[in-house]
Amino acid sequence: MSKPEKRSCIDLIKPYVPGKPVEEVERELGLKNVIKLASNENPLGPSPLALQALQELLPRLHYYPDGNCFYLKQSLAEKLALQPQQLVFGNGSDEILSLITRTYINPGDESLAVSPTFSEYEFAMRMMGGIPRAIPLRGKYFEFNLDELAAAVNERTRLIFICSPNNPTGSAVDKERLDRFLQQLPAGVLVVLDQAYYEYADCYGSDAGLEYVRAGLPVIVLRTFSKIYGLAGLRIGYGAAPAEVIADLNRVREPFNVNSAAQAAAQAALEDEEHVRQSRALAAEGQAQLREGLMKLGLEPVPSQANFCFVDVKVDSRKVFQKLLQRGVIVRTGDIFGYPTYIRVTFGTAEQNRRFLEALEEVLKR
């Protein structure tokens, strides 16, 4: 068969590699009670209020969703002290990254990010023929150097991606440094402040970026319901930005891009502050448990502001991954981020964390 000639940028695109699903591991290896600490999901699951909202929605699934996410938008705008026209929703915040590059990137335009970081920034840029550039994080704790990032801006820079807390390292940027960074930028550059793990961090003030939106600065803050709200399976995230930026994104947004179930569950989850508190507390306990256990094994995890840690296991992470898999524990290898001896581990329940530490000790001894 003959096929159309593919775009020149396609060969540069690296498809996203997700963490292995529990069902796949249980099926392939014949295991039971597999635990997944690979994708930074909330081990508590969704809020009971979200589950109740889903049950109530089921009889109405034959209707198309509200393409404007009206009720969810009103609730979130009130919670964040924003205007509804300053919000856009997507099929996960990944889709909003795609909306941003489809709106603002022409072939040859450039973006800046740090390295290592979330791979979807590069993916979204490559899809539009853009050129992603990266500035390495510094030191054993993977610290941001925003002055260096600002100095790398040139006349072709259109977007700057800052993931804070950063995936996979867990390191973050505080408000004071962000303020100074924004003051250094020239006109015509949009900063994408990805805060998927914002609710877990303790380095921010109460606004954590939204004050830039209210001031009309060229910043779009991305957040998600996949992490602390436990709704990863429904795929819903949002962006907050000045109204003119949101209007641009809505021009390229697909109709009905957020399904009805996701909207209903997200709106209910916003009301369950106790679930968020418990989820944050569990992550803090998990971080302490894993840090203590890893240090006993002679390993030092990177200090994290998120619900996961990045740790150098000092051997090939692919081999460690496979040996842990055989013991019913799924983690994330660091080679996909350019760090082949690191693994990324989500903080789970106390029992899940114990199983991981025992399995890792056994693997490293062998």
Notes on the structure:
Helix 2 (48-57) packs antiparallel against helix 10, helix 3 runs parallel beside helix 10 and helix 4 (93-104) runs parallel beside helix 5 (120-127). This protein is 39% helix and 15% strand. The protein is built from 13 helices and 12 strands. The strands form 3 sheets. The chain has a 7-stranded mixed beta sheet with strand order 2-8-7-6-5-3-4. The radius of gyration is 21 Å and the shape is globular. The chain has helices at residues 22-29, 48-57, 70-80, 93-104, 120-127, 146-151, 175-184, 210-214, 243-252, 260-270, 273-296, 317-326, 350-365, and strands at 35-36, 87-90, 110-115, 131-136, 157-163, 190-194, 219-224, 237-240, 308-312, 329-330, 332-333, 342-346. It has 2 domains: 10-45 and 274-365, Aspartate Aminotransferase, domain 1 (Alpha-Beta Complex), CATH 3.90.1150.10; 48-270, 3-Layer(aba) Sandwich (Aspartate Aminotransferase, domain 2). With 366 residues, the chain is of the alpha/beta class. 43% of the residues are buried.
Topology:
Blueprint: H1 22-29, E1 35-36, H2 48-57, H3 70-80, E2 87-90, H4 93-104, E3 110-115, H5 120-127, E4 131-136, H6 146-151, E5 157-163, H7 175-184, E6 190-194, H8 210-214, E7 219-224, E8 237-240, H9 243-252, H10 260-270, H11 273-296, E9 308-312, H12 317-326, E10 329-330, E11 332-333, E12 342-346, H13 350-365
Parallel strand pairs: 1-10, 3-4, 3-5, 5-6, 6-7
Antiparallel strand pairs: 2-8, 7-8, 9-12, 11-12
Helix pairs in contact: 2-10, 3-10, 4-5, 4-9, 11-13
| Largest β-sheet summary | 7 strands, mixed
Number of strands: 12
Q: Which residues sit in consecutive blocks of at least 5 with pLDDT less than 50?
A: none
In whole angstroms, the N-to-C terminal distance is 51 Å
Average pLDDT, rounded to a whole number, is 94
Based on CA atoms alone, the radius of gyration comes out at 21 Å
Give the helix proportion (percent range): 25-40%
Based on the structure given, which CATH architecture of the largest domain is correct?
3-Layer(aba) Sandwich
Strand portion: 5-15%
Strand order of the largest sheet: 2-8-7-6-5-3-4
List the domain count as a whole number. Answer: 2
